[in-house]
Automatic annotation (TrEMBL), chain A:
Its main location: membrane. This is Major facilitator superfamily (MFS) profile domain-containing protein. It comes from Otus sunia (Oriental scops-owl). The keyword tRNA-binding does not apply. Residues 456-509 are annotated as: Disordered. One of its GO terms (molecular function) is symporter activity. It is a multi-pass membrane protein. GO terms for cellular component: basolateral plasma membrane. It holds the Pfam family MFS_1. Keywords: Cell membrane, Membrane, Symport, Transmembrane, Transmembrane helix, Transport. The chain crosses the membrane at residues 18-37, 58-79, 91-124, 145-164, 176-195, 265-286, 298-314, 334-353, 359-377, 389-411, 423-445. Residues 456-474, 490-503 have a biased composition (Basic and acidic residues). InterPro entries: MCT, MFS, MFS_dom, MFS_trans_sf, Proton-linked_MCT.
TrEMBL record, chain B:
The chain crosses the membrane at residues 285-305. It comes from Otus sunia. This is Embigin. InterPro entries: CD47_Vset, Ig-like_dom, Ig-like_dom_sf, Ig-like_fold, Ig_I-set, Ig_sub, Ig_sub2. Pfam families: I-set (PF07679), V-set_CD47 (PF08204).
């Protein structure tokens, strides 16, 4: 007997409701992941004196932490593919807590590298990727806003952690502070608890219709080329594993290496790897540059505060702009524009004279930085679709890891060789303008190719009207970035009608 | 975000960003006199002197001793280091200058009246150190100086020149040994742990370092050879000294002094040590862990509750629909039977 139509439709992303709780959880998780390594810098002087090491040896702690957070991306992706976001984030939170608590009882700098660098860094990696991934699962129409809000966690957490760390240090010394910071990092587990699992056919849908739908989907997924998101079909998961796959497809199940054949992914990868060469160096050297041209310490530090505050506001705002119906279809262009804008700011920085000039530069830099960060993952989701995003984000972060770590030291070498900061700014600006232009041109080409393929596909399929195929392709091709109701949800609606027809057919018999 | 709140945050941020700008936190202005033959020094911004013409900004290396000087206070040196102060015409604003000396030198302190005040006549000039008058030299019509040979601590102090005319104008030179800075904030450590205290001298190399701990109101020197398993004192470099206190106990809390001995005297820096028990950070730690556990439990319970609600709501819907279909079927049957009958 036909149950009502509402349970029959495989649910699309909720775009609201519990999704906002997930955004809040992601806000906290992402905030810790990005802000924590920077916030630790307050303790470095004391630790340096305690262990009697040089400054560069202490700075390694931060670098190892950052490297592990980005480098462990693929591992994170594999775990999320296998277990879903929630267990991974909770485990990551526990790991961070354990890392910092054990760091509190360290007796050598090497132990600090391991506890703070590796263990806590790995825990933060297990926080960062799943948070970004689950936003893609919960949002579609309002995904840019959700992304912008979640990424705003980073500057907010930094502004909170900095005074907090100073307070803890003044009252508890560095050991006590590490202990308490370990407890604070456990709050990532709370964020993880908010990440309720969700997928196109969730376990909660128990009606007959859903079961029939699931069996239909099972057949579909067994026929599909790549099984890359088993979490989408939690019920029928295990049967796919047993289906006698050859080695490549099995690896692809965990980490989708076939993404390297995906045109959009490659464009994004190359553009971003290039961009990160010049992304972080200006922040690292802004305060030293200000002092170099004669500004006092307080005002130099204030520049960074201005940057953080503008960043905080810019991220959600960019999310809202990116969600508007004019920008969303062309979001890749908007992203390339913001990268190029960022680069232009750096190129113009050497022209800034005096404190007012630098304040203006900081404001524009904060704005550009926030714009790029807010759309960093949104554009990747847009290109590869939420299904393959899990693996994509892992592969992208490990590739970016190298350039992120190289950026500031290269900038530092330029400064040391030429004795002048302007070459570093010129290098960063040039690299970013180049990256922006590259992304712009390649995405233009990509959009045209996609439009062509779309036309070809429509011509082929119109006569057939196969609901199952369209549903499958629809899922695999969320890189049609038109977010309006019509085109994006069309495949889902077609599937709903198709399944309805099947059911009605059986009933009529 | 209300403006007031963001203002507070800004200030906090400011203080914070300052502390994690890792430029080494060099302490503020000590009066470093770059000693050059013949002239003028200073230009340290916090110096509230009225300076003469050549204002040289202090270079990054603080110990610029441009002219040659025999060390050890060799008297046969004829060259003097000059320190000059320009007097303001207006009385009431007293001018002061701090001069740091770490070893014996010959110096010349001079007070000069600006040319625009040269109309002031009948000026009586006296140089004093405390109550004692020092004989001075009239260098020119408008400048007067005294020459001193500083060979030991007794010669240091404050020397002032006074011009008595219609109004009284004066300036004071303070001759001091270099200051040592300790730490204003207490060093926090834990029982059983090791604490490291560091004292630095900027620009001047002390002859020896001594550490003292405070017992009540007394200062007791720390002998690290005697208590080698408790205190370890290292002179890391010429200007830096470290003291490690091992196996801390609560009694080790208190004030410590590091004393640098220079040729012309001694100078002390103050450091505070606080030894806490391990229970102190443990309380906030456990409080936060409890908060995390409670929040996670609440979230999971809420999820189970809302799933149950969903299930029961769906069961109700199905039940309603089954009833509806049954009634439809029965209506249908009636209709068909009615049709049959009609036919």
């Amino acid at each position: 007997m036909p149950p009502p139509a509402t349970t029959g439709r495989a649910p699309g992303p909720p775009d609201g409701g519990w999704g906002w709780a997930v955004v809040f959880g992601a806000f906290i998780s992402i905030g810790f992941a990005y802000a924590f390594p920077k916030g630790l810098a307050i303790f470095f002087k004391e630790i340096q004196d305690f262990f009697g090491t040089s400054y560069s040896e202490i700075a390694w702690v931060s670098s190892i932490m950052l490297a592990t957070t980005y480098g462990a991306g693929p591992i994170s992706s594999v775990l999320v593919n296998r277990y879903g976001s929630r267990p991974v984030v909770i485990f990551g939170g526990l790991l961070c807590g354990i890392g910092m608590v054990s760091a509190a009882s360290c007796t050598s700098i090497l132990q600090l590298y391991i506890c703070v660098g590796f263990i806590t860094g790995f825990g933060l990696a297990l926080n960062l990727q799943p948070s970004v991934i689950i936003i893609g699962k919960y949002f579609l129409k309002r995904r840019p806003i959700a992304n912008g809000l979640a990424m705003a966690g980073s500057p907010v957490m930094l502004c909170t952690l900095a005074p907090l760390n100073q307070f803890l240090f003044d009252n508890f010394g560095w050991r006590g502070s590490f202990l308490i910071l370990g407890a604070i990092l456990l709050n990532c587990c709370v964020a993880g608890a908010l990440f309720r699992p969700i997928g196109p056919a969730t376990a909660s849908v128990k009606s007959q219709m859903a079961e029939e739908g699931k069996s239909a989907l099972k057949e579909v997924t067994e026929d599909a080329m790549e099984m890359n998101s088993p979490t989408n079909v939690p019920m029928g998961n295990k049967t796919e594993d047993e289906g006698g796959k050859d080695c490549c497809e099995k690896i692809n199940q965990y980490l989708d290496f076939s993404l390297f054949k995906h045109r959009g992914f490659l464009i994004y990868l190359i553009g971003n790897v290039l961009m990160f060469l010049g992304f972080f160096a200006p922040i690292v050297f802004l305060a030293p540059y200000a002092k170099h041209i004669g500004i006092d310490e307080y005002s130099a530090a204030f520049l960074l505060s201005i940057l953080a505050i503008v960043d905080m506001i810019a991220r959600p705002t960019t999310g809202i702009i990116a969600n508007s119906k004019w920008v969303r279809p062309r979001i890749q262009y908007f992203f390339s524009f913001s990268i190029a804008f960022n680069g232009t700011c750096h190129l113009l920085c050497p022209l800034a004279s005096g404190y007012t000039g630098l304040v203006v530069y900081s404001i524009f830099f904060g704005l550009a930085f926030g714009m790029v960060c807010a759309m960093l993952f949104e554009t990747l989701m847009d290109l590869v679709g939420a299904a393959r995003f899990t693996s994509a984000v892992g592969l992208v972060t490990i590739a970016e890891c190298c350039t992120i770590l190289l950026g500031p030291p290269i900038g530092g070498t330029l400064i040391d060789t030429f004795g002048d900061y302007k070459y570093m700014f010129i290098k960063c600006g040039a690299v970013m303008v180049l990256a922006g232009t590259f992304l712009f041109i390649m995405n233009y080409y990509n959009y045209r190719m996609l439009a062509k393929e779309e036309k070809e596909r429509k011509v082929k399929e119109d006569p057939k009207q196969d609901p199952v195929r369209t549903e499958n392709e629809g899922r695999n091709n969320w890189n049609k970035e038109t977010a309006q109701d019509g085109p994006e949800l069309e495949p889902l609606r077609q599937e709903q009608e198709g399944l309805k027809k099947e059911v009605n057919g059986t009933n009529e018999v | 975000m209300p403006a007031a709140f963001s203002g507070k945050r800004l200030r906090l941020l400011l203080c914070l960003s300052l502390s994690f700008s890792l430029s080494g936190g060099s302490p503020a202005e000590r009066m470093m006199a770059t000693q050059t033959v013949n002239q003028q020094t200073h230009g340290s911004p916090s110096d509230h002197l009225t300076l003469g013409h050549n204002i040289s900004t202090p270079g990054p290396d603080l110990a610029t001793k441009v002219f040659k000087q025999a060390s050890g206070g060799n008297v046969s040196d004829v060259t003097f280091v000059e320190y000059e102060v320009l007097l303001p015409g207006v009385s009431g604003t007293s001018v002061e200058k701090n001069i740091t000396l770490d070893h014996g030198t010959r110096i010349e302190l001079s007070c000069r009246l600006d040319n625009k005040y040269s109309h002031l006549k009948s000026l009586q000039v006296t140089w004093k150190r405390g109550n004692e008058t020092v004989r001075h030299i009239n260098k020119t019509e408008t400048s007067w100086s005294i020459q001193l040979r500083i060979s030991d601590n007794s010669k240091l102090g404050s020397y002032s020149c006074t011009l008595k005319g219609e109004e009284e104008i004066s300036a004071t030179f303070h001759l001091q040994v270099p200051k040592i800075e300790g730490k204003e904030k207490p060093i926090i450590s834990y029982e059983g742990d090791t604490a490291i205290m560091i004292c630095k001298s900027f620009g001047y190399t002390p002859i020896a370092w001594t550490w003292y701990m405070t017992n009540g109101s007394e200062q007791i020197a720390i002998n690290d050879t005697l208590l080698a398993n408790k205190y370890v004192i290292h002179r890391i470099s010429a200007n830096v000294t470290h003291m490690k206190i091992l196996k801390l106990t609560k009694e080790d809390s208190g004030v410590y002094w590091c004393e640098a001995a220079f040729e012309l005297g001694k100078s002390k820096g103050k450091l505070k040590l606080k030894v806490l028990s391990l229970m102190v950070p443990l309380k906030p730690f456990l409080a936060i862990v409890a908060e995390v556990v409670i929040l996670v439990t609440i979230i999971f319970l809420y999820e189970i509750y809302s799933k149950k609600k969903e299930k029961s709501a769906e069961a109700e819907k199905e039940f309603d629909q089954v009833e509806q279909l049954n009634s439809e079927e029965s209506n249908g049957l009636e209709n068909s039977s009615a049709r049959h009958r009609k036919i």
